[in-house]
Fold:
Amino acid sequence: MRDRQRAESTTFEGTPSDAAPDILATGRTDVTTVFVSMSARHPEGRDAEYLRWHTLDHRPEQHRLTGLRGSFRLVSTPECRSARAAADGRFDAADHVMTYLFNDRVALDRFFALGKALGAAGRMSIALPRVDISVYELAGTVAAARAVVGADVVPWRPSLGAYVLIEEGSADAGDLAGVDGVIGAWWGTSASDEGASTQITFCFLDDDPVSSADRLRPVLEKRWGDGATAPLFAAPFHSVVPYAWERYLP
Structure:
């Protein structure tokens, strides 16, 4: 059933948007800033409760911010953990990933102000242990030709999950969209005060995340072997399914 559904969802006629100048001329993404929050599982096993609250209460409120262009939430499972290709001490505990896409870094000021206001209104009653919060500048986008939709809009195409890749250094991630199961990718970079570069890449998936991870592993090993980047975290995640809060849990 899943294979048939996937084939139906990824087989479309016509010229892909990225090969159609008249389509691109009507608009390109204005996303510049990627805010990523990584969290560990809830210490009391309240992950499903948290996902319900965040998806139905907290996350919708963020879209009152004029600078917010999109958001997506991911969750790991034991099977996803087993399929990780890398996870250093800084990121190993991450089982939840929340990402917001902004059109201006200044929009983060209003984002944090909204969080404070929601807290003051008693709307922040549950939290997950923080693993990492980082801000990246969007550096590149790509869509697989079979997606038909363009790279500018890949994050808004419904996906089964994403492969999250964090690396020291920076390198084009366009070749990852050639892996079966990857419908496209967005990547961003962040520089430390010392000038060291870190890159995050989201490979959006239209196949089972664990199966996709198996196909990505040899491509990633070759990528790291070339020496341009070194892995800090490489892991598949499922997309949260609304109203099926317990379907994918750590």
About this structure: The radius of gyration is 18 Å. The domain at 2-239 is CATH 3.30.70.100 (Alpha-Beta Plaits). The chain is about 25% helix and 30% strand.
